[in-house]
Amino acid sequence: MGTLKKNIFIGFLGSLVATIVGAFLYLEHISRVDFYETIDLIHEGKLYGKVLSIAAIPNLFIFFIFLKKQQDSKAKGVLLGTILIALTTLFLQFL
What we know:
By secondary structure, the protein is an all-alpha fold. The chain has one domain. The protein has helices spanning 2-30, 35-45, 48-55, 58-68, 72-93. Helix 1 crosses helix 3 (48-55), helix 1 (2-30) runs antiparallel to helix 4 and helix 3 (48-55) packs antiparallel against helix 5. The model has no long low-confidence stretch (mean pLDDT 89).
């Protein structure tokens, strides 16, 4: 049972890391202005939820990689992380 929880936790952490990497890639490479100016624009426009939802896209790739490798418990962890990010996005939309 310890291995199952460990694998779910690994998938959950993978989901969070993928979201952080997705946010960084969006802010650094896709945005037309520099990193700190983009952060200021997000703060001024209260666009946290929208950026977070875009940043969560890499979770799809990690989820399908774990499914392809038949590592279902890690895929469950990614799914839990994605649900947490979706709930956070929902909360931030109504702030």
